[in-house]
Amino acid sequence: MGTVRTNLLLALALLAASPLLADEDTQPGSAQLALSDLRTFTDVFNQIRNNYVEEVDDHRLLNAAIRGMLSEIDPHSAFMGPDEFRQLDDTSQGRYSGIGVELKIHDGQILVTGVTPDGAAAGAGIVGGDVITAIDHKDLRGQDLEAAIESLRGAAGSKVGVTVRHASGEVSDHELTRGFVNLASVFSRPVDKDYGYFRITHFTRRTADELQEQIKYMQTNHPGALKGIVLDLRDNPGGVLKPAVTIADGFLDDGLIVYTKGRAPNQMEFSAQDGQWAPGTPTVVLVNGGTASASEVLAGALQDHGRALIVGERTFGKGSVQSVLNLRNGSGLRLTTSLYYTPSGRSIQAEGIQPDVVIARVEAVRDEEQGREREADLKHHLNGDGKSGADVFVSEVNAADDYAMYQALILLKGANVLARGRTGESGS
Description:
Number of strands: 21
Shape: globular
Number of helices: 10
CATH superfamily of the largest domain: 2-enoyl-CoA Hydratase, Chain A, domain 1
CATH class of the largest domain: Alpha Beta
Number of domains: 3
């Protein structure tokens, strides 16, 4: 009898004496298991082990049973083997372990499109435009991109063989040592001179620091005051909760940010502290159906406090909290333990965040100049005094390229025009 099977039967014997088990006459619907239920499990295990068309490793069967148990209770609870658990931890820290290349499929080949400056690939002289033809002497012809990426990743300090065909036609072999490569989660740029655009792709432990640094940089290097912020959370699937809470705090001075409810003890509740990163700066948050989890927590908090205008589509509605638990031999368990609630008590789960301004997905069409005559084109027209009397909305963002972003800028600029009107300021 195999070691795993022996341990399994021993575990079942111990369970038989535990409160999880009940007498054989336990009524249907009881929360407790009858001994016959566990016997059914061992019967199925043995039938597969002994009679399946191909021999199946006992470890694989046991892990499959655990994964199946978790997959049946909700879509987000899961068992993770040691490698998966390590990758989850790396992702939460905003990094991965690999050789530092960006890849794409081009003409059926694995093409290098970018190289991380301090990665192993850069140190070996691999550059954008090179083609990776083999990994550990395995030909990549016919391989998909995900399989190639998975082969290049691995534990930090481990080695991988890479065969590269350079643009010159020369082929070189390299044995590279995998290392940690940091992944940015915040990308920003100034828009229309006076407005800041900040896109958050996912939440890692470093995301809040990244955003605060980029806001400070834009404020410091901007000739005037930053007149508005666009926070783009579209297609952000979430990630680590704490940075989303910290960002909400960065836009709020006080009040509840998010709280949770569940059966597990020590439920969470986060509140804002005094002090903002961009006090008084009008803010629009862009969301869509791909905005989920921690992104929805951030959007919901700013919406409930009236600190930002939420623009776009209803969000995904992933309002459940997964606790990550360490198990034996390096494996892990991601288990749903509670639900998120916004400051006003709204549940995000299966509901999502309804935007303040709904902008459905549209295909904007570029409007070519129609050639219509204006007063200034008429013969003998009278001249005006040259004063337009109003600010004109002109943007470097084309509505046909990003309609939601275009509308966000209209809203921010409209807010600034109204604010000037109330204070009696003149436009510049």
